[in-house]
Amino acid sequence: MRAAGRAHCADSGPRRLQSPAVARTAPVLAKTCGRQLPGQAGAWRPLGHAGERRSAPGFADPQARAATFRYAGGALMSRNESATHRPSTLLSRFAEQVQRDPQALAVIDQASQLSYAQLASASERIARGLLSKGVNPGDPIAVCLPRCWQWVATILGALKVGAVVVPLDRASPLPRRETMLADAGCVGLVTLGDELQAPLMPGVWRVDVDVLLDHADQPPQPVPTAFAAMMFLFYTSGTTGTPKAVGIGERGLLRLAQADSYIDIQPTDRFACLSNPAFDACNFELWAPLLNGGCCVMIADADLQDARRLAARLEAQRVDTLFMTVSLFNTLSADFPRCFSSLRQVLIGGEQVSAGAVRAWYQANPDSRCRMFNVYGPTECTTFALCCAIARDFVGDAVPIGRALADTGVQVLNSQQRPVAPGETGELYLSGSGVARGYRNRPEETAHSFVRLPALDAGETIYYRTGDKVRVNAEGLIEYQGRIDRQMKVRGFRIEPGEVEQRMLEHPGVAQVHVCGRR
Q: How far apart are CA 159 and CA 141, in angstroms?
């Protein structure tokens, strides 16, 4: 998920620093770092992340203090010095919530509501069903379901057997879904009964989620103690004409759900889930509440077509927090300015935020307690990497994308991969536990986008090159300045013009084509 010095390096997580410049002028926190667990064997070979801790990012101490110090070149390093890191896996955290308050609501959809105990039971039955299909740890399993409690239970069940979840969009064309199934090497597909008759590639089994749920209750699966190198494969647009898969690891998901890292997350909070199930923003909508004792409230597509209907649904379900794309926020808030006024936190991103639209919403809702946040992050950095709280009295022409989340490193570099001077524009590089495992079956693209920078840290860290141009303003906040390539965003979705061009050129009546965007 990507939105469109004084502070040219910001690292919000514990990391060993080896840059000579840092060593000369800043206190080095000599915290030994472990290495990420090795990836799955076979065609998919995820990147190993040098310098990662052996423990999970955990859930930061709310009293953690941020320390800042300068080093050569006028750059700034900031670090979230949390002294407490819980070495709990994602499934361990979920199990803790089940044990702590089994009757607390975990999921609400249009027809049902499930407690943590009921959701855990459903996911166990699905896990048993997947095991009966012969699913092994590391097997990619496609999930093609709408937003509903069965979708959440299926994801949990697949993770419990060690599978890699491949979310698919039910509305996308069948050939595109088949391309993803083949590229991911999926062994099976979990869907609804209405899709069981659709043609499917040979060698891939297909099962109705209700069939999996029919399995008898069994004792819970053992909770893994090791962190999974990869839990999800999310597909994004590719320059070659076919979508490319981004491998998301467990540590990045834990970082995303870390309470008090960038927004306030309370055990009783309710989070709206309104993103497309194939959109990586679902990582935030699911794990932020479920790993902190909160509740996921599923929002129907019909509710998103009418601002007043959506506002009524949010208020009736006592939703506290939601994320939505900038385009959707602009449309709904313009149609009904009181939309979102009952919430406590609204995160918007996926595109460049309109300062005017946010300002207009604040002015239309002077008594609302709701706070607005601009969140930025590519799929390759597990949904969110930076966040900016937008003040009610904000007066700027552009909303910054803010500062790094916990355990997230930021560098602003020139074309020679050297730090730019204060205030200058450069390319944004990201590091930390959120950085993905690379692209499946795309070794050249992986090598280009996931790089080591020996001049900065002796090559210890893997950085993701975002392709986004940014600068750091006088307040130390990062501002988005555009792209270094042709990539564009349409309603929050990343679009590679090259993929569209390749598809159009397949038509016999098209000799040449050029795809460009317009506002």
A: 10
Distance CA 318, CA 508 (A): 54
How big is the CA angle at 136 (ends 166 and 292), to the nearest 5 degrees?
Answer: 55
CA 262, 264, 266, 268 dihedral sign is negative
Is the alpha carbon torsion for 153, 155, 159, 162 positive or negative? positive
Instruction: Spell out the residues 6+ positions from residue 300 whose beta carbon is closer than 8 angstroms to its own.
Output: 110, 147, 313
Give dist(CA 472, CA 411) in Å, integer. 10
Pair type for strands 188-191 and 205-208 = parallel
E strands present in 201-284:
205-208, 232-236, 244-248, 270-273
pLDDT of residue 420: 94
Q: Tell me which DSSP letter residue 221 carries.
A: P
The C-alpha atoms of residue 340 and residue 345 are separated, in whole angstroms, by 9
pLDDT top residue among 400 and 516: 400
In angstroms, what CA-CA distances link 176 with 16, 169, 198, 206, 246? Answer: 42, 10, 14, 17, 16
Cα–Cα distance measured from residue 158 to residue 128, given in angstroms and rounded to the nearest whole number: 10
Residue given tokens 């896996």 in the structure block: 89
What does R_g of the chain's alpha carbons equal in angstroms? 22
Q: Which tokens in the block code for residue 461?
A: 């860290």
31, two tokens: 């915290």
Query: Which domains are seen in the chain, by residue range?
Result: 1-87+261-492 (3.40.50.12780), 90-104+115-225 (3.40.50.980)
Paired tokens of 190: 């979990």
Both structure tokens of 13:
């997580």
DSSP state, 439?
B
Mean pLDDT computed over 469-477: 94
Q: CA dihedral in degrees (500, 505, 507, 509; nearest 10)?
A: 130
Tens digits of residue pLDDT in 49-97? 333 323 322 222 322 333 332 333 333 333 343 433 556 999 999 999 9
N residues, the chain:
519
Render 69-137 in DSSP notation, one character per residue: EEEGGGEEEEEE--S------HHHHHHHHHHH-TTSEEEE-SS-EEEHHHHHHHHHHHHHHHHHTT--T
Phi, psi of 253 (to 5 degrees): -65, -40
Separation between Cα atoms, residue 395 and residue 154, nearest integer Å: 45
Residue 357, classed as helix, strand or coil, is helix
List, in sequence order, every residue forming a beta bridge with 44; answer none if it has no partner: none
Answer for the pair 509, 109: CB distance below 8 angstroms, yes or no. no
Percent pLDDT > 70 in the chain is 75
For residue 491, pLDDT over 60 is answered with: no
Nearest Cα neighbor of 50 from 34, 71, 73, 70 is: 34
- C-alpha dihedral (123, 125, 126, 127), degrees to nearest 10: 80
Residue 181, SS3 per DSSP: helix
> What residue has token string 């190198």?
229
